[in-house]
From TrEMBL:
The keyword Metal-binding applies. Signal peptide: none annotated. Keywords: Copper, Metal-binding, Oxidoreductase, TPQ. The active site is at D375, Y460. Residues 304-706 form the Copper amine oxidase catalytic domain. SUPFAM superfamilies: Amine oxidase catalytic domain, Amine oxidase N-terminal region. The keyword S-adenosyl-L-methionine does not apply. The lineage of its organism: Eukaryota, Metazoa, Chordata, Craniata, Vertebrata. The gene is Aoc3. It is an enzyme of class 1 (oxidoreductase). This is Amine oxidase. One of its GO terms (biological process) is amine metabolic process. One of its GO terms (cellular component) is plasma membrane. Its cofactor is Cu cation. Residues 161-256 form the Copper amine oxidase N3-terminal domain.
């Protein structure tokens, strides 16, 4: 072997050794999988919160079987029911009386019986009506009681019933089989109708007086995002009769003109006596309304992960996080609701829940100008949406399945329809950098817990959040997105919105949302206190010839419901809070402050015959005595009979005393939406967000977040690069791990 060969082999050996060393060194530096640590607040299993838990699928089925066997009348599957049938419209938890629950939660009373509320439509009776039954005890029902008269003072007229999905299908079938064929030339030559390429949307309420069930239906191109593809045709259907063969068309509207029926419209078209606007037919993807991205993929957007696992826990319907605990649930009509909210072990609120979402539209088309949607009637829980991980919620959020029973005899499971996650807001909750005298930095990252549901009611998507902060504050927030509603652009349409496309008028409308906030601050009995500021003019004590204008604190106890009912445009004291009968270390009444974020204008003129049905929207804030007979600010029956509302919130306010009482705050927030070109393809959440904050006000002796383990403090004299001194310096070690991102799943298209 010559020297050259030896050198070559030696070089190869050295290269191999070098490569192996590099591999070993790289392995040592590669991050390991993140290690999940148990949440800090582990405690013994607590089943008390189950008193608020939504019904399980098994419980719903038991209720249905009980009703089928004990009412003595046939019950038709609601998805197939005709108006003249009997059916179960919905089944959900009957929340026990508060006094009963508190006796149980606070250790002195028995667990209340578990019961369900069932809403039934009795169409096959001499006097058709809507009946509410309480069924119990679960899981093995043995009794039911009719609570309709007790709750509403009388029977519920049948015309007030919320519209079932089956009724909409029947109306669309009526239009397709009996109405649209009466204008064959118009439908084919103007609208290009082939039997499948049109979709329909309903307006509500349905008429002008109690007893009416007459609805405008707007036709759109049946494409993706059809809400912004009107074709100009609207049909008014009288579906008040329980005999569907008696349904009839009351009026037809096309491109600014009204017709007696489709036959008259057809005659006008054939004779050339009508102005026609042919709409360009678009592909199924909707063209301009398509949400398909129009840019190539680029670098991945930022993601959050928990390097040591979630710092909160979810057991059944109970959540624990950084001193907070609460129970959650979903009502079929009202959506997301929370109960028994505690901070540092002390209850601060018994219930915080969504009540209603209202939209009032304007247009020069009949459906648009008459629309006042009360979404609780359609179902803010019924239409809860499956959530997409990584977009609707952080990818690693905890996703919770929910069950509901409405429009069916079988419960429906909605996978991943709630999400719970801790969210680093990327900003300090509090901080200070001292560069005077002493040199130090102190602060706390603003990391909060979020409970979220997203509800898709027709064209709109509402993102409902309840957010819990480490300083004892809680926020309720809603963001609106989805598609704007639209009318066919004609005539003076630009008085009622903006042009969004060739024939599309984005119609002006309002958004109002209402919350129930049952605060229990330091106990059930509270008073309402208002504080603000006024300027007083005084002489400067050290220079009497000079004057000073100094801010002065003003304070007033609001004694009655009338004093505590703040109209939309009235001035609300900037500090308004529920005050306890106890004091903090510094002698102040312990309190929780209500702070509202809203841009609401007028909800509707009070002279309107339907205004009482939405009279909760008169008030940005109203505080009333809590009463079991006033559980909600509105009713699902108000939508279809707003002229004789089943529940009128204005009647809650009758000047009763609210000093040292169990009180409820009813909070309204809202904004005006004038759709504009940037609402195409659809509306963004930015700027379309309103809500409220509940903030401790002298409730503690100091900010409770000072006890957060996330606090940071270091001085100029310390080694702030050391992990022992500064937890932020630990991040290269504690956060340099590989998070476990499970495979993407989405079940939103199953069982549709």
């Amino acid at each position: 072997m010559n020297l050259k060969t030896v050198l070559i082999l030696l070089g190869l050996a050295l290269a191999t050794i070098f490569a192996l060393v590099c591999v070993l060194l790289t392995r040592e530096r590669s991050p390991s999988p993140c290690q999940r640590l148990p949440p800090q607040q582990e405690e013994v299993e607590d089943t008390q919160s189950l008193v608020f838990a939504d019904l399980t699928a098994q419980e719903m089925s038991q209720v249905v079987r009980y009703l089928q066997g004990h009412l003595g009348v046939p019950l038709v599957e609601a998805s197939r029911a005709e108006p003249s049938d009997n059916c179960i419209a919905l089944v959900e938890l009957q929340v026990p009386a508060k006094a009963e629950v508190l006796r149980f939660l606070d250790g002195a009373g028995a667990r209340p019986p578990r019961e369900a509320l069932a809403v039934l439509y009795f169409g096959k009776q001499p006097e058709p009506n809507v009946t509410e039954l309480v069924v119990g005890p679960l899981p093995r029902p043995a009794y039911h009681r009719d609570v309709t008269v007790q709750r509403y003072g009388g029977r519920l007229p049948y015309h007030r019933r919320p519209t079932l999905a089956a009724e909409y299908k029947q109306i669309w079938g009526f239009l397709k089989s009996q109405v649209l064929p009466l204008a064959p030339a118009f439908m084919q030559q103007v609208l290009g109708y082939d039997g499948t390429n049109l979709a329909v949307v309903t307006a509500a309420p349905r008429g002008f007086q109690s007893g009416d069930r007459v609805s405008w239906f707007v036709l759109f191109q049946n494409v993706s995002g059809f809400f912004v593809h009107p074709v100009g045709l609207e049909v008014l259907v009288d579906h008040s009769s329980l005999d569907m063969s008696q349904w009839a068309v009351s009026r037809v509207f096309y491109n600014g003109q009204y017709y007696r029926d489709m036959a008259q419209l057809e005659s006008s078209y054939v004779q050339g006596r009508m102005s026609v606007q042919k709409v360009r037919k678009v592909l199924w993807d909707g063209d301009f309304s398509s949400m398909k991205p129009r840019a190539p993929r680029a670098a991945q957007f930022p993601l959050q992960f928990e390097p040591q696992g979630p710092r909160y826990s979810v057991r059944n319907n109970r959540v624990l996080f950084q001193g907070w605990s609460f129970a959650f649930g979903v009502s079929v009509s009202r959506g997301l609701r929370l109960f028994d909210i505690r901070h540092q072990g002390e209850r601060v609120a018994y219930e915080v829940s969504v009540q209603e979402a209202l939209s009032v539209y304007g247009s020069n088309c009949p459906a648009g100008m008459s629309t006042r949607y009360m979404d609780g009637s359609f179902g803010l829980g019924r239409y809860i949406s499956p959530l997409v991980p990584g977009l609707d919620c952080p990818y690693l959020a905890t996703f919770v399945d929910t069950h509901s029973l409405s429009d069916s005899l079988k419960p429906q499971k909605r996978k991943a329809s709630l999400c719970i996650f801790e969210h680093n807001l990327g900003s300090p909750l509090r901080r200070h950098y001292s560069n005077l005298q002493s040199l130090y930095y102190g602060g706390l990252v603003n990391s909060a817990l979020v409970v979220r549901s997203i509800v898709t009611v027709g064209n709109y998507d509402y993102v409902w959040d309840f957010i819990f902060y480490q300083n004892g504050a809680m926020e309720g927030k809603v963001q609106a997105t989805g598609y704007p509603s639209s009318s066919f652009l004609h005539g003076d349409g630009l008085r009622y919105g903006n042009r969004l496309w060739e024939h599309t008028l984005g119609t002006i409308h309002t958004h109002f949302v209402n919350y129930k906030v049952d605060l229990d601050v330091g106990g059930v009995k509270n008073s309402l206190v208002a504080q603000d500021m006024a300027f007083e003019v005084t002489q400067a004590p050290w220079s009497p010839e000079q004057q000073i204008e100094r801010p002065l604190l003003t304070k007033k106890v609001l004694d009655t419901e009338d004093q505590a009912a703040f109209r939309l445009h009235s001035k609300v004291p900037r500090y308004i809070y529920f005050a306890a009968n106890s004091k903090n270390k510094w002698g102040h009444q312990r309190g929780y402050r209500i702070q509202i974020t809203s841009f609401a204008g007028d909800h509707m003129p009070e002279g309107s015959p339907m205004e009482k049905a939405i009279s909760w929207a008169r008030y940005q804030l109203a505080v009333t005595q809590r009463k079991e007979e006033e559980p909600t600010s509105t009713s699902i029956y108000n939508q279809n009979d707003p002229w004789t509302p089943t529940v009128s919130f204005a009647d809650f306010i009758n000047n009763e005393t609210i000093t040292n009482q169990d009180l409820v705050a009813w909070i309204t927030a809202g904004f005006l939406h004038i759709p504009h070109s940037e609402d195409i393809p659809n509306t963004v959440t930015v700027g379309n967000s309103v809500g409220f904050l509940l903030r401790p006000y002298n409730y503690y002796d100091l900010d409770p977040s000072i006890y957060s383990p996330d606090g940071v403090f270091f001085t100029s004299q310390q080694d702030f690069t050391a992990c022992e001194t500064n937890p932020l310096a630990c991040l290269p070690k504690t956060a340099s791990c590989l998070p476990n991102f499970p495979p993407f799943t989405f079940d939103g298209f199953r069982n549709m």
